[in-house]
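Slide 14.
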Amino acid sequence: MQRIVISVTNDLVTDQRVMRSCSALHDQGYDITLVGRRLPGSAPLNRPYKTVRMRLLFRKKAFFYAEYNFRLFLRLLFSRADAFYANDTDTLPACWLASCLRRKSLFFDAHEIFPEVPELVGRPFVKSVWRKIEDKILPRIRDAHNAAAVTVCQSFADFYKQRYGLEMRIVRNVPMSYPECSDSDCDIQNILSVIPEGKKMLLYQGAVNIGRGVEWILDAMQYLPECHYVIAGVGDEYQRLKDYSASKEWSDRVTFLGRLEPRQLHALTPHADLGLALLENRGLNYYYTLPNRISDFVQGGVPILGTDFPEVRRVVEKYQIGTLIPPQPFDSETMHSEPPDSVQLAETVRQTLAYWDAVDAADRKTRFSSAAADLSWENDKKVLLQQFSTIFPTS
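Slide 15: predicted structure.
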């Protein structure tokens, strides 16, 4: 039984992609240890594999990443392991160095183009540091016989192929099949009760961070009395946007749910009339991304209103399951994105809802069934396991 140490920089609680990867490898017979960090208020974990959460002195920026990688490197140096699995570039230095010193296999999972994350837009020095880390390590992954790499979409794979000649297979951020769960069993009856009868539910789910278009819909709600806006998730912008919403006369049309359990979110999503996937053009990471929520909306049969970025367009147009709006101009110097006109955005929402009210039920079911069959973890986990077989050829 090969032992794999999997590393992330979060507290393990809500990272569904990592949970799916760990479960797939565990079910395949690998001995899994998942390493992350513990935050104040981190919820307890109950996983069938070992988990470790380190308490760190620093929580943000350079000191956090330096401390995390140093602590992780020491742990990996003395761990019983046959492979080190780095989720994203922020865990890669420790995993790569430990794999070199111990001559162990290395697996890299790029959830994003890390130097292009929105937090680094407008910070050229910090961005250059992460770029140099990738420039140092990724060519060595390309040339190593006991290393492999995956990423979340074709656009990311094309980027890394062009820059480093690194072949990366695609393991998308798509959901696994969940057991059926009634509203009462999943404890969402109280959530649904806040939505006035007869109102159309607009749903945003995921991290409430900068550049996610959450505020755009908040402003458009002034012109959408027939709708109710639900925000499910937390993040850096959560409290500011909650306070901002409370200051508006139409605040009764908006509900902030905070963090939900996965089973609750899975049960809530099919109740939505429109799923929101609006993004600012904050660098290549946002431009090329396929947000997790796209697949969640697909599995729930919820039409999508998304930004016309390549990977979003690839899904929405292929299956005809939503509406795309043009990206808003973004100034990387001022870090400002001109918001869409609220009246026009509200009208787009209204027209999209009207279109889906008129779509034949059988046609709608066919479109979403086809998309759901494609965007399923049951497909993508086979790619993940196949890539591991290349570094563990006897497994």
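Speaker note: The longest helix spans residues 124-143.
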